[in-house]
TrEMBL record:
Listed InterPro entries: Plipid/glycerol_acylTrfase
Keyword terms, alphabetized: Acyltransferase, Transferase
Lineage: Bacteria, Bacillati, Actinomycetota, Actinomycetes, Kitasatosporales
CDD domains per record: LPLAT_AGPAT-like
Protein name: 1-acyl-sn-glycerol-3-phosphate acyltransferase
GO BP annotations, alphabetical order: phosphatidic acid biosynthetic process
Organism: Streptomyces tubercidicus
GO MF assignments: 1-acylglycerol-3-phosphate O-acyltransferase activity
GO CC, any one term: plasma membrane
Domain (Phospholipid/glycerol acyltransferase) ranges: 34-155
C-alpha cells in the first residue's frame, strides 16, 4: 500500500519532470522473479528505474538511511521503505554481504524483482567498473532467477555526486534480454563460476550503456582518485610555500 502510493507520487513526478526514455521494457517479465543488474552512475538510479516499470523493484540500501535519529531520520526511513528499499548494514564486511544475499533471495522467492548494482558502488567517473562476483552471481545461482542487464544513461548528469539540486536533463534506461544461468545452479561455491557469471552480465551492461570498461573495482578507483587529489593538493601547497619564500 505504502509502496503503491510512493510509486504513484514519486514515479509520476519523476516521469513528468525528467521524461526518461526507455528501451527494451518488454524484457521485464509481467510476473515471476527476476534480477535487474544495473550499472550505477547516480543516487537517483534506484528511483528512475522503478519509476518506469509497472512492477515493484526492491534494492538494497545503507542501513544508515533507516536509523538516523530525529524527525528527519524518521521521514527518511519512511521514504526509503515506501520506495521498496531494504536496509542492510554494509559496515560489517563479509557479514554485510551475506545479509544482502539473504535479502535478495527472499525477495526473489516471493516472486518479485530484485535490483542490484554489481559494481558495488557508484562509478566515480562515469566509466563501467569490474563487477563484484559475490552478490549478483550467488543470488542468481541460488534462486535460478533470470538476470536482466540494465544500463542507466546520463543519470550522473541529473544529480552529480555531492549535488543536492538536480539538473533538468533527460536520462535514459536500456533494458537487455534476460540471461539464463540455471546451467550453473548448485555451483555457487565455485569462485570461477561466480566470476564467469558476473563478467558475462557486465559485458552485456557494457554493450547496453556504451561505457568504457575498466577492469578494476570501483572502490579501488575511488581510492586512487582520492590519493591523486591529495597528492595534487600537497604539491600545490608546497608550490605556494615556495612562492612565498621566494618573495620574502
Amino acid at each position: 500500500m505504502i509502496y503503491g502510493a510512493m510509486k504513484f507520487s514519486l514515479g509520476g513526478s519523476l516521469k513528468l519532470a525528467f521524461r526518461p526514455w526507455v528501451e527494451g521494457i518488454e524484457n521485464i517479465p509481467a510476473e515471476g522473479p527476476a534480477i535487474l543488474a544495473s550499472n550505477h552512475l547516480s543516487f537517483s538510479d534506484s528511483f528512475f528505474l522503478p519509476a518506469v516499470l509497472d512492477r515493484k523493484v526492491t534494492f538494497i540500501a545503507k542501513s544508515e538511511y533507516f536509523t538516523s535519529p530525529g524527525v528527519k531520520g524518521k521521514l527518511t526511513a519512511a521514504f526509503f521503505k515506501g520506495v521498496g528499499q531494504l536496509p542492510v548494514d554494509r559496515s560489517g564486511g563479509r557479514g554485510a554481504g551475506e545479509a544482502a544475499i539473504k535479502s535478495g533471495i527472499e525477495v526473489l522467492e516471493r516472486g518479485e524483482l530484485f535490483g542490484i548494482y554489481p559494481e558495488g558502488t557508484r562509478s566515480p567517473d562515469g566509466r563501467l567498473y569490474r563487477g563484484k562476483p559475490g552478490g549478483l552471481a550467488r543470488v542468481a545461482l541460488a534462486t535460478g532467477a533470470p538476470v536482466i542487464p540494465v544500463a542507466m544513461i546520463d543519470t550522473e548528469k541529473v544529480q552529480p555526486p555531492g549535488k543536492i539540486v538536480p539538473k533538468m536533463i533527460r536520462p535514459g534506461i536500456r533494458i537487455g534480454k534476460p540471461l539464463d544461468f540455471t546451467r550453473y545452479q548448485g555451483m555457487e561455491g565455485d569462485r570461477f563460476i561466480l566470476r564467469s557469471v558476473t563478467d558475462e552480465v557486465m559485458y552485456e551492461i557494457m554493450k547496453l550503456s556504451g561505457q568504457e570498461y575498466v577492469d578494476i573495482y570501483a572502490t579501488a578507483a575511488k581510492r586512487q582518485i582520492a590519493e591523486a587529489a591529495k597528492a595534487e593538493a600537497k604539491q600545490q601547497a608546497e608550490a605556494e610555500q615556495a612562492r612565498k619564500a621566494a618573495a620574502e
